[in-house]
Amino acid sequence: MIRIEEIVENVARNHPQANLDLLRRAYLFSAREHKGQKRASGESYLVHPLEVANILASMKLDEVSVATGLLHDVVEDTLVDLDTIRQYFGEEIAHLVDGLTKIAQISNISREEQQAENVRKMLLAMVDDVRIVLIKLADRLHNMRTLQYLNPEKRKRIAEETMEIFAPIAHRLGMGKLRGELEDLAFRHLHPEDYRELAEQLEKRRAENEAFLGGITERIEAKMNEAEVPFVRVEGRVKRLYSIWKKLKIQKIELDQVYDLVAARVITPNEVRHCYAALGVIHNTWRPVPGRIKDWIATPRDNLYQSLHTSVIGALLPTGNTRRANAARAMTTTPSRPCAHWLSGHRKSKTPATFSIR
Ligand code: MN
C-alpha cells in the first residue's frame, strides 16, 4: 500500500508552497471514516483513496485536488455528510466532493436512456471546475486497474462506460496518456482473447522495437544538434494495444502492416517556429511519404491538440533490418491546450511543444 508520506513528498516537489498539513489531515479523516470497509479485492478500502490521490499527485495537481482524492468517497460511502467536510476542510474541497458525488449519480444512468455523447456533454456541463473531472478520471483509472476483482457483468458495464464516456473525456481534455491507459484496460476486459493475442505478438517484438526506437531517438538528437534546432527531449513510443487493434479491425491489415507501430516524438521549446524547424530537420534527413504530412498547428484538432505529423521512409530502419518501410511522425503541442494549463499550474511557459517521428 502506498504511504501517505510518499504522496506528500510528491506534492511538495511539484508545489513548494503547498499546505501539506491539509493532505495529512485528509488522510487521517479518510482512514477513520473508511475504517473496516473493504474493496472487492479484499484489501482495506483506504487503498483506493490513497491510490487515487497518488495518481493525482503524479498528474502534478495541487494539494486541494490531492486531498479531495483522499476524501472523494467519504460522502458517498460513509455516514459523513457534506457539511462535515465543509466544516473540517473548507468550502473549496466541499465543492469538489459535491461535484464528484453528482457526477457519480449521472454515470449511473443506463445507456438505454442516454446516448454516450449526451452523457459526456451533461457531465462536462455540470462541472464548473475542471479539477472535478480530473479527480473523477483518476478514480476511474484506479477502478479500472482493479477491475478483475468484480463479477463479469459489472466488469463489462464499467469497461463499456470507460470506453464510451471517460476515455473520450480524457481525450477531450488533451490527456492522451490517461486516455490510452483507460482504453487499454477497457479493451482488456471487453475483448480478452484479442487483447491477449495482440499483447503476445507485441511482446515478441519488444526487444526489436526498443532497439529500433533507441536508434531513431539518438539519430534525431544528433541531427537536431547538428542543425542547431533547440529541443527539450526526444521520446520513443510503441503504439498502444487498443489503438493498434482498432487499426487492424478498421483497415483489415496485419500487425506487420501497421506503419506507425513505433514512433518518436521531439519535444521542442514552447514556440511554434521550433516545431517547424524540427520538421525541416526530419525531412532533410529522411524522405517524407507524400500526403502524410499533417499540420495540426495551423488547423488544431477539436480537443485543441496542436502538432505536426509526418511519415518518412526507410532510412530509419536499422541496418540489415528489412522488416518494413518505416515512417516518421511529428507533433507539436502549444500552450492553448486547456488541460496543459491545469496540469502545469502556474508554470505555463514550461508547457512543451512536441514533435514526433514514426
Ligand atoms: Mn472512488
Provide a descriptive summary of the structure in words.
This protein is mainly α. The chain folds into two domains: 187 residues, Hypothetical protein af1432; 155 residues, Beta Polymerase, domain 2 (2-Layer Sandwich), CATH 3.30.460.10. The protein is built from 15 helices and five strands. The strands form two sheets. A three-stranded antiparallel beta sheet has the order 1-2-5, with helices on one face. The chain has a two-stranded antiparallel sheet with strand order 3-4. α1 packs antiparallel against α2, α4 crosses α6 and α4 packs across α8. The two termini are 38 Å apart. The C terminus is likely disordered. Bound molecules: manganese (II) ion (MN). The site of manganese (II) ion (MN) has 4 residues, from loops.
Going by CATH, the architecture of the largest domain would be Orthogonal Bundle
Catalogue the ligands. Answer: manganese (II) ion
Shape: globular
Biggest sheet, spatial arrangement of strands: 1-2-5
Give the mean pLDDT.
Answer: 84
The total strand number stands at 5
Q: What share of residues is helical?
A: 55-70%
CATH class of the largest domain: Mainly Alpha
Number of domains: 2
For this structure, the quaternary state is single chain
CATH homologous superfamily grouping of the largest domain:
Hypothetical protein af1432
Radius of gyration, CA atoms, in whole angstroms? 22 Å
